[in-house]
Amino acid sequence: MSEKVAIVGSGLIGQFWAMIFASGGFRVSIYDIDTEQVSRALALIQEKLERYEKQGCLRGSTTATQQAQLISGHTDLAECLTGAVYIQECVPESVDLKTKVFLQLDPLLSDDVVAASSSSCLGPSQFASAMKHRDRVVVAHPVNPPYFIPLVEIVPGPWTADDVLTKTRTLMEKVGQSPVTLKKEVPGFALNRIQYAIINECWNMYKDGILSSEDIDKVMKDGMGPRYAFIGPLETMHLNADGIVDYCKRYADGAYSVCQTMKPPPIQYDVPTAEKVQAEFASSIPVDKIPERRQWRDDRLAALATLKRQR
Ligand code: NAD
Prior knowledge:
By secondary structure, the chain is of the alpha/beta class. Helices cover 51% and strands 13% of the residues. Helix 1 (12-23) links the parallel strand 1 (4-8) and strand 2. Bound molecules: nicotinamide-adenine-dinucleotide (NAD).
């Protein structure tokens, strides 16, 4: 029989994790404090698996029906966790709630299980410090929608055992995610630190009247984005000269003088500027059309994920 993974919290991210683990052949048990949510989550998972199968973007080598059969719902936490080799917590982002949930998990953990949190910005030191089994806790932060964006940031707390990091990384690779392991907990992990650096510069260029909001987004989606879907910024440096050493010799002075004209962080994303940008989005993406636009984004990301799997 295949190994079992437990999901605690069956909202948007919990459902995606369940589908990802089932696509890799794992048995998946889902728990939620809201008992009706468990049935809703199972129905939504079934619906998504069938839709992705029809669209040709179902992951794994088994059918939607076979994958759905691997997923079961539970209203009892201990029952959900029994026999699980890995637990993925997916409750809302709140220090108090995560602390409470991990303290509930604590007496149910064994010495070799991994208890991972999906937290977007809380590190293990912020919610696991009072646990007896805090060495078994790690953050495994997905990117929405994780079914089509494979990056997972693995973030240790000060006490996380080394085997927890290696087991999490191996598991993520096994189910087709793309893990990176931070050597220590830092605010924003890796993705948001890079994302905020980009947003900061975009915000400043907009406020300084250098580019319209439409043109700022175009710089990313039609300029840097296509390249970055396949190679990262360091490889970009490497390929844009005869190696990264040559790049630094050729371009470091120029880059340094441009960077000196940048404003120092941190900047505040102020509401008046946000209102101006939102007004510019009014005809293309009015606020009441955001759900349709999200669906369009996810469909495009699904197509890109399929393309990237071909390499
Ligand atoms: P969500 O609100 O969609 O789902 C949370 C679920 O947790 C709900 O079903 C809720 O009933 C359940 N829950 C609440 N308290 C609980 C408890 N004590 N025990 C068990 N279940 C409980 O939230 P989400 O968007 O799925 O986010 C979950 C986590 O994933 C958060 O930490 C979030 O920061 C992180 N995350 C979210 C995204 C995203 O884009 N939504 C991306 C990456 C990471």
